[in-house]
Amino acid sequence: MSETQFLPDANGITKRPDVLSVLGILTFLNTGIFMLVYLLGTFGMMAVSKMPVDEFTKLVQEGLSSYPMPAEQMATMEEVVILLHASGMSLMLIFLVRTIGRFVGAMGIWKGKKQGFYIYAVAQILGLFAPFLILPWSMLGVFGPFMTVGITALYGSQLKRLV
User: 41 Cβ partners below 8 Å, 6+ apart?
Assistant: First the structure.
């Protein structure tokens, strides 16, 4: 097992900063759960891609029938269903690779390595935009990008303590 090391803070203390401990634990929980979700999602989308598109659309419509929604929102859902049928597996793989990159980067940060931050930041930023190789830009929300930049900035605030 490799040794954990951090540069000293203003008081000369070389233990892992509390901010990195909290962020690391939250990141490990998040990435662990979502690696499983995206892996299962990849297999699920593989099965969906083998179904006829009409059958998949009907299945989703039946599932959504108990949730009343405006006609334009239903039309948008149908577009998304067709998109998922065609490219859902690729989308899940993009999310899975992004999540694995975040995990690898977080492990590096946890061990006190500056390289871990760079891996994490690249995975976060590329992972924010890579799904839009498949998805329409209209699906880019506000909360996700703010969270991505915010968490990356919190990790970056401790860059001076990483070796």
Answer: 88, 92, 95, 96
